[in-house]
Amino acid sequence: MCPSSVVRRLERRKRVADEIMDGLQGRPFRWGDGTYSAKRPLLEELGVTLVTETRLRKIGRALKRGVRPVGSIYFPAPIQRHADVYVLECQTKPEGA
After folding, report:
1. How does DSSP classify residue 80?
2. C-alpha neighbours within 13 Å on the C-beta side of residue 15
3. Pairing with 31, which of 22, 24, 66, 83 sits 20 to 30 Å away (CA)?
4. What is the sign of the dihedral through the CA atoms of 49, 54, 57 and 63?
């Protein structure tokens, strides 16, 4: 693998990480379904899981007090709308805790 391809791969991860950090600092992103699908593997590599409030309830977690969404993602059928997303690893807690 040539150095330029490694640099491109690292830059892609950095851009995604920067978007998440911006969201955590109050500058949320807005992604379409295609953008999210393309970035999901990079998020997994970074250890970041984006979840909606509906998903949190299903997995028995709740939002920590005062957190704001890091962004919104368009979800196709069946809901066909943008939904706010949160970082599971740092913006949530076990339900009831």
Report:
1. -
2. 10
3. 66
4. positive
Per run of 10 residues, the mean pLDDT along the chain (length 97 residues) is 87 96 98 96 96 96 97 92 97 90
Number of domains in the chain: 1
* Closest listed residue to residue 20, CA positions, set 1, 47, 38: 47
Half-sphere exposure of 92 (CA within 13 A, CB side): 23
Residue 79's pLDDT is 85
Parallel, antiparallel or unpaired: strands 29-31 and 71-75: parallel
The pTM of the full predicted model, rounded to 2 decimals, is 0.92
Residue 41 tokens, joined: 């593997």
Pick the closest to residue 63 from 87, 81, 30 (CA basis).
87
End-to-end CA distance of the chain: 47
Contact 75, 85 (CB under 8 A): no
